[in-house]
Write a structure and sequence with these properties.
Elements lengths: L1 E4 L4 E6 L10 E5 L2 E5 L6 E4 L13 E3 L4 E4 L5 E4 L2
Antiparallel strand pairs: 1-8, 2-3, 2-7, 3-4, 4-5, 6-7
Length: 82
């Protein structure tokens, strides 16, 4: 799954897995490169390939294949199969 959003913007994410809960995850897109991090400098979660584009597509909720549900009512994001 490819997850895209505004460059330099972040969205909230909560784990859809009942066994694991990340209350807020900062997801930032910069220079075609994604990073998932827990707040307050917590451990690094995931980094998307640098060739993943940052585009403007309005979608409020997507579910990534790692069962992390991303929600944002302000910064558009999109998820689609690759």
């Amino acid at each position: 799954i490819t997850i895209l959003a505004h460059q330099g913007h972040s969205v909230r994410a909560t784990s859809a897995n009942a066994g694991v809960h990340y209350s807020i995850i900062n997801r930032i897109c910069y220079q075609h490169h994604w990073s998932l991090q827990k707040p307050a400098g917590s451990h690094f979660l995931h980094c998307f390939p640098t060739n993943a584009p940052c585009i403007l597509e309005p979608i409020s909720t997507v579910r990534a294949e790692n069962d992390v549900e991303v929600q944002s009512g302000i910064h558009p994001i999109i998820s689609k199969p690759i």
